[in-house]
Design brief:
16 helices, 350 residues, single chain, 0% strand, globular, mainly alpha
Length: 350
């Protein structure tokens, strides 16, 4: 057996990775640029559907949007995961430790946007931060920002509405996290945190796992994260785009204008519907796009989306393990109020 070939194989494989990544990037760019023309040809020329019919319009919307969103998610999640690999949870906790309210809320919200976090890690993150001495309000800013301003929502908003709406969403969501966390901190709600959280003690210095990663590790993490997220969200993605396609093809603009609430009540109803509803950005944003195309104000549909992704029932159930019911109710009320304010503001400026 040629052992030298076995030893050199990983080196050659690692050396080829930049070329493979460059080739994948070129294919991604080409696919994204020809996406619209491809489905125009497939749906209207090959399948023979009329673009002016409800069926033709709905089928084209579904296929085009599914491909566009899948491409955006694949490309940006990969890049964001590699960037996030340089910011570990241990480093985040260290940066937040000792921060006072105010500045600490701003830092926590910013870290919540760029740090890997999901609802399943809400409880251990909360315990770890509080046990490390991070104030309750600062911890809340981190917990609010992480699901609210997440990479999936950012990618999909960028593809569906452009960079201006995306920037407003990021600024608005981060502002909600900062202000809501500060308010929750000033209310002095520590008595409604389960006692065992404060009794938890961290032993030893945390190991900064991000410092031990090689570039091959980071690339593998990016590939695995793309695979994991797409497998996790594809049912929501297809259902959301399917609903959007149905509304796009069969629900006329006049019906939306006649039946959809607007003005003061529109944002309030949107948030009221969004809080108990469980979905994610992949499932809800195609519907948001369609409702906006049909005439609903941008602030109203974005408030609906924010309430869904920031206040999901599964995360509230998980947080019940460390927070008592009065604190959870207060948490939802404060965050929902912030979303309402952003919704009304967006309706005024957009």
């Amino acid at each position: 057996m040629n052992t030298s070939a076995l030893v050199e194989h990983p080196v050659r494989s690692s050396a080829r990775r930049p070329l493979l990544l460059a080739g994948a990037a070129v294919l991604w760019i080409v696919a994204y640029r020809v996406n619209l023309r491809w489905w125009d040809w497939v749906v209207y020329d090959v399948a023979g559907l009329d673009p002016d019919t409800r069926l033709g319009s709905a089928v084209h919307f579904f296929l085009y949007d599914t491909t566009k969103i899948a491409l955006l998610l694949t490309g940006v999640i990969f890049v964001v995961t590699i960037a996030r690999s340089f910011m570990s949870v241990e480093r985040t906790r260290a940066l937040l430790g000792g921060r006072r309210e105010g500045v600490g809320n701003v830092v926590a919200a910013g870290l919540g946007v760029v740090t890997p976090f999901c609802s399943c890690s809400a409880v251990p993150a909360f315990i770890g931060f509080v046990a490390a001495g991070v104030p309750l309000g600062v911890t809340m800013s981190f917990l609010i920002a992480s699901p609210l301003v997440n990479e999936i929502a950012i990618v999909m908003l960028l593809g569906l509405f452009g960079w201006k709406i995306t920037v407003l969403y990021i600024v608005g969501g981060t502002t909600i996290a900062v202000v809501a966390g500060y308010v929750l901190g000033r209310l002095r709600l520590e008595k409604w945190v389960e006692p065992f959280v404060f009794e938890t003690r961290l032993h030893g210095e945390p190991i900064d796992s991000s410092a031990q990663l090689t570039w091959d590790d980071r690339i593998d993490m990016g590939i695995e994260e793309v695979r994991t997220i797409l497998l996790k969200i594809w049912p929501y993605l297809l259902v959301g785009i399917g609903l959007g396609a149905a509304i796009h093809g069969w629900v006329p603009e006049q019906w939306i204008a006649d039946h959809a609430t607007s003005g003061l009540w529109g944002v309030l109803v949107a948030v009221g519907l969004g809080v108990p509803l469980y979905s994610n950005a992949a499932g809800i944003l195609p519907l948001v796009e369609t409702l906006h195309d049909k005439g609903l104000p941008m602030g109203t549909v974005l408030a609906f989306m924010m309430s869904v992704v920031a206040l999901s029932m599964p995360e509230m159930v998980l947080l019940r393990r460390v927070l008592k019911k009065p604190l959870i109710v207060t948490y939802v009320a404060v965050v929902a109020t912030g979303i309402l304010a952003i919704g009304y503001l967006f309706n005024l400026v957009l």
